[in-house]
């Protein structure tokens, strides 16, 4: 089974950023309000995620590390409308097969409570020992790919890997304003984001993560039609080219890279602003979970809409209208 895990690990664990994504999605699924991330050496030495979510009970700790042990799917029908981000039950198993993983968790409000389990590469120490921890979970991943030297060689420079880690962090933090976040790299605080639910929460978070300039040249929109809602910010043509990579699209709170979505946005931009402007945006699409399948691929951020045409038209016409309204003052 450990070998199977290592093979599966190739699917899930491409680089430190993919580990971070899996750990943070678990923390979000656990209902956390605060998530703290500690990284060292571009994640190659350390990736630690600490949350204040529901925790994992003593008996479930070793299970959490075994393959296909998910607590999240009860029936096949549930796959239809998966609200939780994880559903495969193999991320922790995969990660622990290519790193040294420690899980400490407490499901009670007694800060002296808590349990710890450790797994290192092919060796699994299924013994659970007491370890104090506030309610919630800390997952520590050290020495990624220590036992798969070929994969370790594929790691890029610390700076490049940190770039991927920070980008993953941005997407996750943009998906949940109501969660407080801390990101540290090599003992330095890179981001510290307070949780918020008020009207300005989104703007504060967007400028903290994408820079204050993003909003200076962006149009806010919030449009509802055909049972869908599209809201967020799109950059206007005065946007500098340096920000050309700032494209964030969320479907029901999950970051997505989708051809249909990209096409609709590009079309609307091209139509209104000409010159093949590179669109920049932070957009949230909300729709009935039953008409969208977010589980096309575990790691590739793909979606499949039941009625792609309808979604495409809604996105295109919403953006077209919103951008068209500001065009007279900004284009040209
Ligand atoms: P999945 O998320 O697909 O269920 P994982 O391998 O990522 O699979 O996690 C396995 C199980 O471990 C989860 O189903 C969950 O029960 C538990 N778990 C992992 N991380 C956490 C966490 N931070 N808080 C609470 N439970 C967790
Ligand atoms: Mg998971």
What is the share of helical residues?
Answer: 25-40%
Low-confidence stretches: 76-87
CATH top level label of the largest domain: Alpha Beta
Write down the overall geometry.
Answer: elongated
How would you characterize the overall build of this protein?
The chain is an alpha+beta fold and 332 residues long. The protein folds into two domains: 2-193, Heat Shock Protein 90; 211-330, 2-Layer Sandwich (Ribosomal Protein S5, domain 2). The protein is built from ten helices and 15 strands. It has helices at residues 2-12, 16-29, 61-64, 91-97, 149-153, 158-175, 201-210, 213-216, 259-273, 308-330, and strands at 34-40, 46-51, 100-106, 115-120, 123-130, 136-142, 180-185, 188-193, 218-225, 228-235, 247-251, 254-255, 281-286, 292-293, 304-305. The strands form three sheets. The chain has an eight-stranded mixed β-sheet with strand order 5-4-3-6-2-1-7-8, covered by helices on one side. The chain is elongated, with a radius of gyration of 21 Å. It starts with a helix and ends with a helix. The relative contact order is 0.12. The structure holds adenosine-5'-diphosphate (ADP) and magnesium ion.
